[in-house]
Amino acid sequence: MSRMTLAAAAAALMASTCAHAAEPIALRDMGSFHVGGRLVEITGKPVKEVTFTPGGVPAKVDPNGTYQVEQMYVQYFLPQNEKGAYPLLLWHGGGLTGVTYETTPDGREGWLTYFLRKGWSVYNSDAVERGRAGWAQYPDIFKGEPVFLTTANPFERFRIGDGPGSYDPDPAKRRLMPGSQFPNEGYENFVKQNVPRWTTTDDAAIAAYIAEIDRVGPCIILFQSQAGSFGFKVAQARPDKVKALIAIEPAGVGDPAKVESLKNIPTLMVYGDYIERDSRWPKIRATGVAFADAIRAAGGSVDIVDLPKAGIKGNSHMIMMDKNNAEVAGLIQTWLEGKGLTKK
Amino acid sequence: MSRMTLAAAAAALMASTCAHAAEPIALRDMGSFHVGGRLVEITGKPVKEVTFTPGGVPAKVDPNGTYQVEQMYVQYFLPQNEKGAYPLLLWHGGGLTGVTYETTPDGREGWLTYFLRKGWSVYNSDAVERGRAGWAQYPDIFKGEPVFLTTANPFERFRIGDGPGSYDPDPAKRRLMPGSQFPNEGYENFVKQNVPRWTTTDDAAIAAYIAEIDRVGPCIILFQSQAGSFGFKVAQARPDKVKALIAIEPAGVGDPAKVESLKNIPTLMVYGDYIERDSRWPKIRATGVAFADAIRAAGGSVDIVDLPKAGIKGNSHMIMMDKNNAEVAGLIQTWLEGKGLTKK
């Protein structure tokens, strides 16, 4: 490429980038709501005096009474020019919240605004026990204890680094997966998104996700990691309302005895890179593929995309945050269009 | 008013309502980030095996290591047609999150979109320990225990109901304050917004709010209840960056020894109704008024609006959720315009 051509190409690229950045997002509405949950009675505890603000006026707080627990938070953005045939629900993975789909840890656009710009009504939630959904006393209401992750843990377990011991506080000293697409310099921002999680609240999460669908109506669900089992199980509970499933590296699947219920729901499964190098991911992926095979055997349609085989290399478990997140979102958008899920 | 005039007025009102509902929100950008926080080392704990997903592949979780704690979550919406001279930061009260300012519990527009439609860049946060900010182990990192509120507690303490015993699960049987503006039928949705809180994390919250201002730059802060002390103290720490303060029923104030630092920051304090009927609010309000007097004595400017005296009656502590929330927002907007804080 000659110097002139290169300069022209660079100018064109800049113009296109600026045009995109300048493109406003026009919303016909935005807002939030909570769904689901239940009331629990607690009795037999002593009354406390709580000074909520240092130096403030103490208030009596009687811990006995009724508590609202296990609700879920949903934030929605409805585009002015709607092009999706159904709303798109984004369900995050374990130890995370809806922040997963917002700005990436290195400050780029996340999938929430990507799909919003494409004309989808987007519903982004914080599952039961996470973020703006709140959480309940344990062991009184939640049965287990919360799990906290060290700074290093997701780096080594989410196929950003090359396994145990690969993390170092200094970004330059980290043993990244070769060709990793994760924005390494933003890793600390990603860690700030991590929140405590329980491993004993799955039933409550599923109940709340069902309540979300019952409120929103017919929809498409995009879900990741822990939400793998939520996405498939909720679709099995509401097969008529779920119009498509997009499973990003699902860590769990639905009920194998009820695959029949998924046969009319077009499904896309997406897996990133380095599966073979990891100690757990080959088995996790195999579970997903076996579930897909069972759906197909029941007459359903599942497309599995292993990104490296499709020429998209270097993706971690956090595909929606990776440097090529827009490329993968484009692949999903194309799949949705191909399934006739955009407005005519 | 004749029947014809009434019909014409109703038609005009409907047209104006529909026009408002149809008016799109045009954003030049939206997204989120985390600010602040620190790293804490935990040692000497046994390694656990955690099965994150029921039936999934167990992972070893070593609780020893470095934890990211005390960061804060900020979500921002930047209007295409910016009319505010500075970004508007919204800081919620105790046991709540940024949801405070979104859709009201009965499904109307909250202050976030109200001010966004008026052309303000709005930054809505979840303070340290709340919502999408996450929280840390106690007593290892956070020193105290979290406080949980019963369903009845905010109703009786936030001047929605008329004091202790006024709550009933049946909305029709509740003893509301006379003429209450709180959307009683939506009270259960409000309770779903409540999250556990600590009373030992104020210093961390202040540090994170300062980090927010250092990132966003010169700004206006609107804060409520618990954030009263945060708003004033942070302004005292960054007096050159804070261009106005709007204190909605502040439950705490700043450092009385440093009121001098607030003298160049125009300040508005807003109090709702029923203050005299409550056991704690007369003292809380008196503390706010005394602080305002001290700022004035130091040469500063504070406007105190007691809503009932301004003819706006029936407001609870949750003014941004009350049925007349848009009327009070209008009062704040007018004050901001009067202080010359909108673009020329």
Description:
The structure is a homodimer of 344-residue chains. By secondary structure, chain A is α/β, with parallel strands linked by helices. Chain A has one domain: Alpha/Beta hydrolase fold, catalytic domain (Rossmann fold, 3-Layer(aba) Sandwich). Chain A is built from 8 helices and 10 strands. In chain A, the strands form 2 sheets. The first copy, chain A, has an 8-stranded mixed sheet with strand order 1-4-6-5-7-8-9-10, sandwiched between helices. In chain A, strands 2-3 form a two-stranded antiparallel sheet. In chain A, β5, α2 and β6 form a beta-alpha-beta unit. The longest helix of chain A is centred in the N-terminal third of the chain and has 20 residues. The N terminus of chain A is likely disordered. At the A-B interface, β1, β4, α3 and α4 of A face β1, β4, α3 and α4 of B. β1 of chain A pairs antiparallel with β1 of chain B, so a sheet runs across the interface.
